[in-house]
Design goal:
The protein is an alpha/beta fold and about 120 residues long. The chain contains 3 helices and 8 strands, in the order βββββαβαβαβ.
Amino acid sequence: MDLVFERPDFNYVLRGADGARAQVNDRTLVRSFIVTRDRLVEDWPARDVGGLDAIAIQPLLDLAPEVVLLGTGETQGFPPPAVMAAFLQRGIGIEPMTNAACARTFNVLAGEGRVVAAAFLLPG
């Protein structure tokens, strides 16, 4: 069997994530961050899903993605209704999920050429 490593046509690949860290390309991140196909925003000040507000989500809104994948840590959690509404009012889908699921889903959507942003909440 011949195995060939195919490089993606986007700059940032999620190699894995859990409730404490995420592997982006060859880097391990331990602080909350936002990633798109071609941009990495480190040290996003958000830390927990219940504490998200208009100020915390503004960097995501500024990216104008089609969909936001929200990694909420080791377990799935949902942001306050006002946060969900802020995305939906702009026609941006938002999908809260565990960090592990968020990493997998980001890679699939980015590989399809979708305009996707993934935000990971990490305690560091």
